[in-house]
Specification:
4 helices, Metallo-beta-lactamase, Chain A, alpha/beta, globular
Length: 243
């Protein structure tokens, strides 16, 4: 659905990752149509990878009511509890929670997960969603060697391949590093995310190729280095069957 927002429907469970559903986040404008999520279609759980504004967006979360179930990394409950959310669960790396018939497990992420520099601690995590299929949602992370230990059975890896501007800060992957990470994880299918959705208002026309090129470069580099992995590029709003 754009940026790191992905709807997952698996074995009867309905999950939503890092929902950013507005047309403007701080200085960023949405460049693709609003996904049109109905606030009445409340997911069974929302997975929050970390606290940055382009991943934990309070107005987007409020669309589903403050009783919506939220699963995040350490530090999430303190932040959201102060905002009135009542069903917030924290998962440290290696810990799991059940959502219907699927299991959600927090896995490491190499990324500063705090709301802003100097804020109280907030740990970034990724998630493995496991049922009849296994899905890895990376959230925001840089490449790290232990990625080959995440799981040996990933069917679909949701891999961040860019960001929202002309450059990438620390703790992110460009298409090349995301392809290297994919080689370590060895999923059956990789889907590039975290591209093509948000762009700075003041950037004008300069660098707008970053909205379209990263997933294609990622696909080409995965094909060259890990030909056994299929890549499905989903434009924001598109979907694919898990079978």
């Amino acid at each position: 659905m754009g940026h790191a927002t992905v709807e997952i429907r698996l074995d009867g469970a309905h999950l939503l990752t890092d929902p950013v559903l507005r047309n403007r986040i701080v200085h960023l404008r949405r460049q693709v149509p609003d996904p049109g999520i109905d606030g009445n279609d409340v997911p069974d759980a929302i997975l929050l990878s970390h606290q940055h504004f382009d991943h934990l967006d309070l107005p987007s979360l409020r669309r589903f009511g403050k009783q919506v179930r939220i699963i995040g990394g350490p530090g999430t409950s303190a932040l959201l509890g102060r905002r009135g959310f009542t069903r917030v669960e924290e998962l440290a790396v290696g810990h799991s929670a059940s959502v219907g018939a699927v299991t959600v497990t927090a896995v490491p992420a190499a990324h500063d997960g705090r709301r802003r520099p100097g804020a109280k601690a907030g740990e970034a995590v990724g998630f493995i969603v496991a049922g009849s299929k296994e899905i890895y949602f990376a959230g925001d992370t840089d490449l790290y060697p232990e990625m080959d230990r995440l799981s040996s059975n990933v069917d679909v890896a949701l891999m961040p391949v860019w960001g929202w501007g002309h450059t990438l800060g620390e703790g992110h992957m460009d298409p090349g590093r995301a392809a290297e990470a994919t080689a370590l994880i060895r999923p059956k299918i990789a889907v590039p995310i975290h591209w093509g959705t948000l762009f700075p208002m003041v950037a004008g026309r300069f660098g707008r190729h970053h909205l379209t090129r990263p997933p294609q470069r990622f696909a080409a580099q995965v094909a060259a280095g890990s030909p056994e992995v299929g890549v499905t590029v989903l434009a924001p709003g598109a979907s694919m069957p898990l079978d």
